[in-house]
Amino acid sequence: MSDHPDTTVGPTPAHEPPYYAVVFTSVRRPDEDADDYRRTAARLSRLVRDIPGFLGEDFAHSPAPGGLAISVAYFRDLEGIRRWRDHPEHLDAKRRGRERWYERYVIHIARVEHSHAFGGPA
Amino acid sequence: MSDHPDTTVGPTPAHEPPYYAVVFTSVRRPDEDADDYRRTAARLSRLVRDIPGFLGEDFAHSPAPGGLAISVAYFRDLEGIRRWRDHPEHLDAKRRGRERWYERYVIHIARVEHSHAFGGPA
């Protein structure tokens, strides 16, 4: 089972470029506090919707031990990314993430130059 | 269980920007041919490594019905993305993907401007 509220929603539609993607790829620790992680992820997923320029978020998590989780959040501009980066609850969650949940992660902030969709309401 | 050979490897390290990310977010059909899909995914995952400028690929797939799959492939430049886009076996797989496997997908091609890593050998 997934541990993220949005797994069955999406994918986020293609938007008119340019826009920005924040790719967050992570491996969690085996001894993490999963309940606290889930609560925090659900809370952040609600909070980010209030950031001006937020376009959507996609999430996938392979369940195998050591499996990757990938979240991709889309924003219209870098200002939205900065606001989200500096949001107090997000800052606190990132600190707890480094202390408790993540074995490792990589973040890529990228300017989307092309996008297209197949099928569905995109 | 995962259906992709690379799920327990990664994440791809942060590289020196600029580089490019191809984000492929998909929902598969419930009646897909899973064996053919898996074979093709494994074959493509080997082929892409021979593309000049290929930097790595991360994959995650939430197992719930309707769960998203996200793959992110990283390339040094757009020329590598074009070569991969036009690779004959990749073209054939994309055609079969639209005909057989995918209910919908969205592709975002993005220029990575910032990246950083926490933990692990990155």
UniProtKB/TrEMBL annotation, chains A, B:
<dbReference type="GO" id="GO:0004497">
    <property type="term" value="F:monooxygenase activity"/>
</dbReference>
<dbReference type="InterPro" id="IPR007138">
    <property type="entry name" value="ABM_dom"/>
</dbReference>
<keyword id="KW-0503">Monooxygenase</keyword>
<feature type="domain" description="ABM">
    <location>
        <begin position="24"/>
        <end position="95"/>
    </location>
</feature>
<dbReference type="Pfam" id="PF03992">
    <property type="entry name" value="ABM"/>
</dbReference>
<protein>
    <submittedName>
        <fullName>Antibiotic biosynthesis monooxygenase</fullName>
    </submittedName>
</protein>
<dbReference type="InterPro" id="IPR011008">
    <property type="entry name" value="Dimeric_a/b-barrel"/>
</dbReference>
<keyword id="KW-0560">Oxidoreductase</keyword>
<dbReference type="InterPro" id="IPR052936">
    <property type="entry name" value="Jasmonate_Hydroxylase-like"/>
</dbReference>
